[in-house]
C-alpha cells in the first residue's frame, strides 16, 4: 500500500490500474468509482490488520475493454505496470505508470472513431486574448488559433474536443465569456462556464499556469521541431496560442509519451482565412450534427459525404466546418471538382483506386509512436502500392497542354508518392499475412535476418542450424556441415550441441528475435513518417474532391461563380438535405437575389409550414458549399465571398435547461448586430417571437432598421410572421418583400413552397392548426375571430365585438385578444416573468449580471436535469 499510495499521489486525477499478477487492481476511492462505472464487485482487502481497503479488479487479459469503458465515461486511466519480473524481484516488485489513457489522447484503435478526429484542446488566456491549441495524437495533427470570446464555442464546436486542458489559475485579464451556471466544476476558472454549459460532461484536465507561459513554450517548440523561430510555421501573429501549444506538448509527453514523436509542426488557423460560422450557425444549419435526432442523414455532412476513405471523411468534415474566404483557392477547388464531373470515367477510376487505401494518417502515426503492429505495416505497404495507381489517373486527367499550372489535380499528383523504400522494406521483412500481434504467429519472413538462421530438429542429428544459400559464405569455419537441402545447408556447432537442452526454449528466443527485428523495421519506417503524412494529406484531398464531384454529378449541382463583390444570386436553388428527404415529392426550387444596392434586406413572410425556414437555410448552405469548394444545388449561383454567416433560427431547446429562450434569442441577435460586416450574410428566422406581440414587433422592427441603417450593410433575409414588417419596403430603399405562395382551394390550402416578390396577405395559422388536428369547434371559432379581427370590428370602448353576445364583455382591452391569439403556442417565458418583479433601471450592469447569474442557477436547480 505504501508503494500504491506513492504512485497514486502522482496521478490524483486518474483512476490507477495497479498491476498485480494477472489482474489490474483499483483501491480506495478509485475502487468505488471503478466498480460503479464498470459494474465490478467491490470487495475489501484487509491491510495487515489495519483498516479495510476497498478493492475492485479486472483481469489483465480483458483490460482494454475496461479502459475503453472508463475513458468513454470521461475518466482517465493510469496504467501502472510491474517493471520487473516478479520471479526475480527481491521484496516488492517495482512498479511504475507507463501511460495514462485520457479521452483526448487515446491511441487505441477501439477508442477512435474512423471518420472523426479525436482532439485534445488546450485553452488559456493572456492579457485580453484567448489562446487555443489542439492535437490529434493518432495522426499527429497539431494546430493553434486565437479565437475571440464570441468565437470560442464555435471553434470548440468545430473541433469537438474529447478533452480540454486548462490552467489551474486563469491568467491575464480576460474575463471570459459572460456569466454561466455551472458552479460545480471543481476549481475550474469561471471563464469556462460557457463551455461547461455547452457540454457539461466534457472532461477537463487542469495543469499549473506556468506551463501555459508563451515565453517558456516558444523555445521548447522550436527545439522540438528543429527550427530557429516560430515564424517558420507562420505563427508570429500568435502569443497566447503558443502558450497553449507549449502546455499541450508537455501534457502529451506526460500522459502519452509515445505520441509526442508523431506531432507535426503546429499549423496556425487565422480567422480571416475562413468563413466565420458562429456556434448557433454551425448548429442551426446542421452542418455536422443534427439539431434533433435526425441522425447523420439530417446533416449536410451526411448528405455530401461520398468519400471512400477514412482520411477523406475526416478531411471533408474540416472543409465543411471551415469554408474558405480566399477566392483563388475556392475557384481552384471548383475547377478540380469540375474536371471530374466532366470526366465520369476518371472519377470512377479514382474512387476505385482509393478503395484499398487504409487510414494512412493514423498508420503513419502508429509507426511514429512505435505502436504499429505487423498487420499495420502490411496495410501501410498495401496503401503505398495503391498510391501510384491514383497518381496515374490524376496525371492522365490533367494531361492536356492547355491546362493551367495552378491545377489542383496536378499539384496533388506530384504529392502522391508511392514510397518504394518503405514498401520494399516491409515486403522484404514481413510475411504476407502476419498475426495482429507480435508473437502470435510468424511475422518475419524466412531468410530475412542475415545469416538467416532457422533452428530445426530432426531425429537423425537432433538440433541443427539451417542457412539459406545466399548466406552460406558467412558461415563460420567451425560449423559442422550435416546436410544439404535445396534451399541451403544444415549445420551443427559445438555450442549448439552444448546448449541442446536449453534449446527447448528456442521458441522464446525466436519470439525475442522477431520482436527485435520488427522493432528495427518499425524504426526505419518511422523515419519516413513525415513523407507518409504528406502522401496521406494528398490522398485525403483527392478523396474529398472526387467525392464532391460525385455528389455534384449525381445530384445535379452547378458550379458557382465566385466574385469579390458582395452579393448572392441564386436561380432555382435547392436545400441539399431537404431535397433528398422528399422521396417522390418534388422539391420546389427557389431564387434569391441579395446585393448591397437594392436587395440588402429581404423580408420574407408566409404562413407556417410554407417553407420559410427551408428557404432561409438553403441560402446559407449553398454559401457554405460554394466557399468550401463544392458545387451547389442550383441552376446557377453567383456568390460574393462572405466573411461571416450568422443565423438565428427558431427557438432552441434551452428552455429545458432552465434558460430563457427569449434571452438566448436576444443574445444571438445582439451578437449579429455587433459583428456583422458589409460582407456578412445574416439569416433571421423569427425575431421577437418569444415575448408579447407588441414588444416583439417593436424589437423586430428596430432590428430591421438597424440592419438597414446601422452603418454596415450585411446581406440579410428575415423571415417573420409580423406582417407589419412588410411596410418597411415602402420607406427603406434596400428592403424587398418576398413571400411564399399559397393557393387556397375552398377550405383547403396548398403550400406551393414557391417564393415570390411581394408580401403575403394572410395568416394561415388556423389551417395549420386544423392540419395538426385541432378540434373542429376550435378551428371554426378561430376563423370567426380572425374574420372579426380583420374586419376591425372593435366597439367604441375598445371591447372586441367578437366576444359572443351572451357573454358579458369583461372590459377586455383590445390588443390582448390579439396577443393571446398569436402567442398562444408560446409558454410564458420564465425570465420575462421574473423581470416583471424587478426594477432593472435601478441596477448597475454588474448587479444585473449577478442577479441573472443567480436566477439561472436557481432555474437550473429547480429543474430536474432529465427534463
Ligand atoms: P416554415 O419555416 O415556413 O414553417 P419549413 O421551412 O419548416 O416551413 O417547411 C415546412 C415543410 O415543407 C418541411 O417539411 C419541408 O420539408 C417542406 N418544404 C420546405 N420547402 C420546400 C420546397 N421548396 N419544396 C418542397 N418542400 C418543401
Structure description:
The protein is an alpha/beta fold and 867 residues long. 40% of the residues lie in helices and 18% in strands. It is built from 30 helices and 27 strands. The strands form 5 sheets. Strands 13-23-24-25-21-26-27 form a 7-stranded mixed β-sheet, sandwiched between helices. Helix 14 runs antiparallel to helix 20 (529-555). It is globular, with a radius of gyration of 34 Å. 41% of the residues are buried. The structure holds adenosine-5'-diphosphate (ADP). Residues 578, 582, 587-588, 590, 606, 608-614, 753 line the site of adenosine-5'-diphosphate (ADP). Adenosine-5'-diphosphate is lined by residues 578, 582, 587-588, 590, 606, 608-614, 753.
The biggest sheet amounts to: 7 strands, mixed
Overall geometry: globular
Give the termini distance in whole angstroms.
Answer: 44 Å
Instruction: List how many beta strands DSSP finds.
Output: 27
Range of strand content: 15-25%
Overall pLDDT score = 82
The helical percent reads 25-40%
Amino acid at each position: 500500500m505504501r508503494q500504491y499510495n506513492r504512485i497514486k499521489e502522482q496521478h490524483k486525477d486518474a483512476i490507477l490500474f495497479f498491476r498485480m499478477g494477472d489482474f489490474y487492481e483499483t483501491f480506495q476511492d478509485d475502487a468505488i468509482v471503478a466498480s460503479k462505472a464498470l459494474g465490478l464487485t467491490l470487495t475489501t482487502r484487509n491491510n495487515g490488520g489495519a483498516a479495510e481497503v476497498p478493492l475492485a479488479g479486472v483481469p489483465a487479459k480483458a483490460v482494454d475493454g475496461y479502459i475503453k469503458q472508463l475513458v468513454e465515461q470521461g475518466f482517465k486511466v493510469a496504467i501502472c505496470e510491474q517493471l520487473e519480473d516478479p520471479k526475480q524481484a527481491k521484496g516488492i516488485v517495482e512498479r511504475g505508470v507507463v501511460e495514462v489513457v485520457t479521452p483526448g489522447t487515446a491511441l487505441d484503435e477501439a477508442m477512435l472513431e474512423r471518420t472523426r478526429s479525436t482532439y485534445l484542446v488546450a485553452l488559456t488566456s493572456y492579457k485580453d486574448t484567448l489562446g487555443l491549441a489542439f492535437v490529434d495524437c493518432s495522426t499527429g495533427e497539431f494546430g493553434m488559433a486565437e479565437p475571440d470570446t464570441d468565437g470560442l464555442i464555435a471553434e470548440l464546436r468545430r473541433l469537438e474536443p474529447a478533452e480540454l486542458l486548462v490552467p489551474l489559475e486563469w491568467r491575464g485579464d480576460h474575463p471570459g465569456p459572460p456569466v454561466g451556471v455551472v458552479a460545480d466544476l471543481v476549481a475550474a476558472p469561471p471563464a469556462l462556464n460557457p463551455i461547461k454549459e455547452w457540454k457539461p460532461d466534457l472532461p477537463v484536465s487542469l495543469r499549473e499556469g506556468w506551463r501555459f507561459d508563451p515565453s517558456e513554450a516558444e523555445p521548447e517548440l522550436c527545439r522540438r521541431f528543429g527550427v530557429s523561430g516560430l515564424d517558420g510555421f507562420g505563427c508570429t501573429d500568435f502569443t497566447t496560442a503558443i502558450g497553449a501549444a507549449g502546455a499541450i506538448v508537455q501534457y502529451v509527453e506526460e500522459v502519452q509519451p509515445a505520441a509526442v514523436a508523431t506531432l507535426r509542426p503546429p499549423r496556425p488557423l487565422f480567422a480571416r482565412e475562413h468563413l466565420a460560422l458562429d456556434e448557433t450557425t454551425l448548429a442551426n444549419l446542421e452542418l455536422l450534427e443534427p439539431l434533433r435526432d435526425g441522425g447523420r442523414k439530417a446533416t449536410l455532412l451526411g448528405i455530401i459525404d461520398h468519400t471512400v476513405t477514412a482520411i477523406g471523411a475526416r478531411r471533408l468534415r474540416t472543409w465543411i466546418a471551415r469554408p474558405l474566404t480566399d477566392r483563388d483557392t475556392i475557384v481552384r477547388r471548383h475547377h478540380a471538382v469540375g474536371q471530374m464531373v466532366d470526366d465520369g470515367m476518371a472519377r470512377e477510376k479514382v474512387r476505385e483506386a482509393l478503395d484499398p487505401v487504409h487510414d494512412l494518417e493514423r498508420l503513419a502515426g502508429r509507426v511514429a509512436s512505435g505502436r504499429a503492429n505487423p498487420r499495420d505495416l502490411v496495410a501501410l505497404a498495401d496503401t503505398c502500392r495503391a498510391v501510384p495507381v491514383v497518381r496515374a489517373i490524376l496525371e492522365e486527367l490533367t494531361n492536356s497542354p492547355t491546362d493551367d499550372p495552378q491545377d489542383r489535380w496536378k499539384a496533388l499528383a506530384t504529392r502522391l508518392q508511392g514510397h518504394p523504400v518503405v514498401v520494399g522494406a516491409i515486403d522484404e521483412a514481413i510475411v504476407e499475412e502476419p498475426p495482429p500481434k507480435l508473437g502470435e504467429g510468424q511475422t518475419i519472413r524466412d531468410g530475412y535476418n542475415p545469416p538467416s538462421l532457422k533452428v530445426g530438429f530432426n531425429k537423425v542429428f537432433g538440433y541443427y542450424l539451417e542457412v539459406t544459400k545466399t548466406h552460406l559464405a558467412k558461415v563460420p569455419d567451425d560449423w559442422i556441415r550435416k546436410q544439404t537441402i535445396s534451399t541451403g545447408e544444415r549445420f551443427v556447432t559445438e555450442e549448439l550441441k552444448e546448449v541442446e537442452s536449453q534449446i527447448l526454449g528456442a521458441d522464446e528466443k525466436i519470439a525475442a528475435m522477431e520482436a527485435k527485428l520488427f522493432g528495427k523495421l518499425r524504426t526505419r519506417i518511422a523515419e519516413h513518417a513525415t513523407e507518409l503524412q504528406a502522401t496521406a494529406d494528398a490522398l485525403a484531398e483527392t478523396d474529398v474532391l472526387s467525392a464532391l464531384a460525385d455528389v455534384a454529378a449525381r445530384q445535379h449541382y452547378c458550379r458557382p461563380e465566385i466574385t469579390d463583390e458582395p452579393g448572392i444570386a441564386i436561380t432555382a436553388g435547392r436545400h441539399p438535405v431537404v431535397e433528398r428527404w422528399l422521396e417522390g415529392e418534388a422539391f420546389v426550387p427557389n431564387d434569391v437575389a441579395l446585393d448591397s444596392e437594392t436587395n440588402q434586406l429581404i423580408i420574407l413572410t408566409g404562413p407556417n409550414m410554407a417553407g420559410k425556414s427551408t428557404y432561409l437555410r438553403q441560402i446559407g448552405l449553398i454559401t457554405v458549399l460554394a466557399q468550401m469548394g463544392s458545387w451547389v444545388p442550383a441552376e446557377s449561383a453567383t456568390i460574393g465571398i462572405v466573411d461571416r454567416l450568422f443565423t438565428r433560427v427558431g427557438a432552441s431547446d434551452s428552455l429545458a435547461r432552465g434558460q430563457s429562450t427569449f434571452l438566448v434569442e436576444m443574445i444571438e441577435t445582439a451578437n449579429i448586430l455587433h459583428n456583422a460586416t458589409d460582407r456578412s450574410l445574416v439569416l433571421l428566422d423569427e425575431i421577437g417571437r418569444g415575448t408579447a406581440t407588441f414588444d416583439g414587433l417593436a424589437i423586430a422592427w428596430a432590428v430591421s432598421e438597424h440592419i438597414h441603417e446601422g452603418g454596415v450593410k450585411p446581406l440579410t433575409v428575415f423571415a417573420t410572421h409580423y406582417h407589419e414588417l412588410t411596410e418597411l419596403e415602402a420607406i427603406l430603399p434596400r428592403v424587398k418583400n418576398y413571400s411564399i405562395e399559397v393557393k387556397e382551394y375552398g377550405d383547403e390550402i396548398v403550400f406551393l413552397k414557391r417564393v415570390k416578390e411581394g408580401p403575403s396577405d394572410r395568416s394561415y395559422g388556423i389551417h395549420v392548426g386544423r392540419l395538426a388536428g385541432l378540434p373542429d369547434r376550435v378551428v371554426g371559432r378561430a376563423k370567426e375571430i380572425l374574420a372579426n379581427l380583420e374586419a376591425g370590428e372593435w366597439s367604441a370602448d375598445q371591447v372586441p365585438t367578437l366576444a359572443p353576445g351572451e357573454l358579458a364583455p369583461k372590459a377586455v382591452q383590445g390588443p390582448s385578444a390579439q396577443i393571446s391569439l398569436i402567442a398562444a403556442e408560446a409558454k410564458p417565458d420564465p425570465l420575462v416573468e421574473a423581470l416583471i418583479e424587478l426594477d432593472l433601471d435601478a441596477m448597475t450592469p454588474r448587479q444585473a449580471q449577478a442577479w441573472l447569474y443567480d436566477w439561472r442557477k436557481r432555474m437550473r436547480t429547480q429543474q430536474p436535469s432529465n427534463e
